Amino acid sequence: MAQIGSEPKTYERPLSPHLQVYSPLINMTMSIVHRITGAALYFGTVILIAWLLAAATGRGNYEWVTGFMMTIPGLLVMIGYTWALIHHALGGIRHFIWDTGRGFDIAVVNMLSWLTIVGSLAITAGIWTYIFTLRGLL
Description:
By secondary structure, the chain is mainly alpha-helical. It has helices at residues 26-57, 59-69, 72-99, 106-134. Helix 1 (26-57) packs antiparallel against helix 2 (59-69), helix 1 (26-57) crosses helix 3 and helix 3 packs antiparallel against helix 4 (106-134).
């Protein structure tokens, strides 16, 4: 029986790590970025569809959309879309490697995460350097 007037025992519970205490890891960051780039690809695909519709509906529409894409904001959007597409694809390859049951050692996970970010930036820079060179902008 419980004693009358006795206080219930309280136990100190550990607190969950807070953002000020917990330091983000590269694999956690790449997981978040992979999800963000996946969502961003939906918006970029709308732009791609607008470009294709403009090409299908006439020269004036196509020139207007292409002219917008050659402005600074348009180029930034297209470069961002290219990076998101490549980053998401490399992240998909990383996940495919994991689906085969390989690459779960923390050193390999970190290496694949760094290769995803560095590779996506390098490939995007290479593609746009090539495009700008073809257009005579470099």
